[in-house]
Write a structure and sequence with these properties.
The protein has 4 helices and 7 strands. A hairpin with a 6-residue loop joins strand 4 and strand 5.
Length: about 170
């Protein structure tokens, strides 16, 4: 995922827009996260004094299992990030922005995008916001079927009180 900035760096322009589809080549990363290879990238490069900044957004798709109903579905995530383009990486750098190394007027976005993907994936994904999940008694998917289980549940701590009235 190389982007050549040579023309932009030599020009008097202060902003350069890039809209592209990028392909992640790391098969292990794709398989582990169930990602599709193509990632939509939209970014703006800015010249600010002697610095080069990137404000970007990525859209990616991946397969996920719903945390409630356990059905497989495809999820789309949009993540924004900022980066600073540098000649040399700073080991002590601790900011929200990502550092991207520029070499021969080109930058490689694969590692920064992989970082953003890791950080933007939800901990618990739902197939839809109103997912009903599965019945805790019979295990039927409540989004597709209606179960015949009794919804009345007695708190186990109060179960003994039921015997008081039967005597």
């Amino acid at each position: 995922m190389l982007i050549n900035l040579k023309k932009f760096l030599l020009s008097d322009d202060l902003v350069m827009n890039v809209d592209d589809r990028l392909t992640i080549m790391d098969e292990e990363f794709l398989e582990k996260n169930k990602l599709k290879k193509e990632i939509e990238f939209s970014g703006r490069f800015f010249k600010v004094e002697k610095s080069l900044l990137l404000n970007a957004k990525i859209n990616y798709f991946y397969s996920e299992t719903c945390a409630r109903c356990l059905e497989e579905f495809e999820n789309k995530i949009t993540a924004n990030f900022n980066a600073i383009i540098v000649d040399k990486l700073n080991d002590d750098y601790e900011a929200e922005d990502i550092e991207i190394l520029i070499k021969d007027s080109c930058i490689d976005l694969e590692e920064p995008i992989k970082q953003v993907v890791y950080l933007s994936m939800p901990m618990k994904a739902l197939c839809k916001t109103d997912c009903k999940g599965i019945c805790p008694k019979c295990g039927i998917n409540l989004n597709t079927d209606k179960c015949e289980c009794n919804d009345f549940v007695i708190d186990p701590r109060l179960e003994k009180l039921k015997t008081l009235l039967s005597d």
